Amino acid sequence: KTLIPLDVTRRITLNLDLLEKLPPEGSPHGELLRQLLPGAFRAYRQHLGMEGIHLHDAVAIVAAISPELFTTERMYGDVETEGVLTYGATVFDRRPRPEHQPNMDVVVDVDAAAVTDSIVRGLTQA
């Protein structure tokens, strides 16, 4: 099991210039992406105040295809089910001597530029 936390996937931000790199109009993939992506950019701007978008699932796909772009650590993690402020949060035991055996690989770093390039390449060559 490999977990990619949101704090890692949020390091990859795609900007509006992505729209200029899409497949040409008239191609099925280009048409679909031209319909979907402007709404995503608009939603991120309106709801999050961001001028770019995160494609968390695309980052996970790149991790499966090119794991060398990611740095992982073995650690114990579990989902908090009793806390008030942390209910539903994934909690990792990062102590030097954790109480439990590691149960997953957790991505702790990423080559953000290379992952961004891979996502853009995948979208533009669709």
Which overall shape is indicated by the principal axes computed on the Cα atoms? elongated
The gyration radius over C-alpha positions equals 18 Å
Mean pLDDT comes to 93
Order of the strands making up the biggest sheet: 1-6-4-5
Question: What does the largest sheet look like?
Answer: 4 strands, mixed
Low-confidence segments: none
Distance between the termini: 29 Å
| Count of discrete alpha- or pi-helical segments spanning 4 or more residues | 4
What is the number of strand segments?
Answer: 6
Portion in beta strands: 15-25%
Order of helices and strands: EHEHEHEEEH
The residue fraction in helices comes out at 25-40%
State the secondary-structure class.
alpha+beta
Give a short synopsis of this structure.
Helix content is 38%, strand content 21%. It has helices spanning 6-9, 28-48, 56-65, 112-124; strands at 2-3, 14-15, 52-53, 70-79, 90-93, 104-110.
